[in-house]
C-alpha cells in the first residue's frame, strides 16, 4: 500500500525558512520510475507545482520559486525534504507531497499539511 | 512556462446530465495531460492520464480526449459524487496545472 505523509510546522513567521518532510511507504525512492513532487494550494485557489526529485537525484524547480526552494531525499529513511526560504503570508497554503510515476502525473498524493505564515 | 487555461470556471449541471470541461495549453503538450478531481478537504485524485487513459478504479462515465493544445474531460451522466473541482495538468515540459473548473449542482 502506497502512502505519503507530510510533516512540518503549521505556523511560520514571515522571513523564516520552512522545512517540510514527506515520509513515504509502499515504494522505494530508488525505484527507477519513482519521483516525488511538492505541490501547494493556497486556500480556495488552484494547485501549484513547486519542485520534483527523481530517483537518480535529479531535481527540478518551479521557475518562479526556484531561488527559494531546495528539495532533497534520504532514500534510507524513505523521506523527501523541501525547504522554502524567506516565507511570506502569500505562501500560506496546504502543501502536498505526491508520487509522480515516471516523472509524469501524480498517482498518489499525501493528505497535505496546512502551513500558515503569520507574525 | 506552459500556461494551462480551463473553462468554464464554474459549470452548473443537473444530475444525470453530461458535463464537458475544457483545458487549453499555451503550446503543444502532445498527449501529456492528466485530469484530477478534488473534493473539499481532500487531496486531488487522478482520473485520466495520457489525455484519455482512465486511472485504476475510475468509472467509465469519465472520459478524456484531445491532444496538442485542446483537451476535454467528459462526464457522461453526472452522479452526486461527481460534483467537485477538476484540474488539468500538463507534464510535457515539467508541470503546470490549470486554475480548475468547479462542477456544481444545477
UniProtKB/TrEMBL annotation, chain B:
In the UniProt record, the signal sequence range is none
**InterPro entries linked to this entry:** Ig-like_dom, Ig-like_dom_sf, Ig-like_fold, Ig_sub, Ig_V-set, IgV_Light_Chain
Give the keywords, sorted: Adaptive immunity, Immunity, Immunoglobulin, Immunoglobulin domain
What CDD domains does the record point to? IgV_L_kappa
Could you give one GO CC term from the UniProt record?
Answer: immunoglobulin complex
> What's the domain of life for this entry?
Eukaryota
Residues of the Ig-like domain: 1-89
Q: List, in alphabetical order, the GO biological process terms annotated in this UniProt record.
A: adaptive immune response
Q: What is this protein called in UniProt?
A: IG c1182_light_IGKV3-15_IGKJ2
- Which species is this record about? Homo sapiens
Q: What taxonomic classification does the UniProt entry list for its organism? A: Eukaryota, Metazoa, Chordata, Craniata, Vertebrata
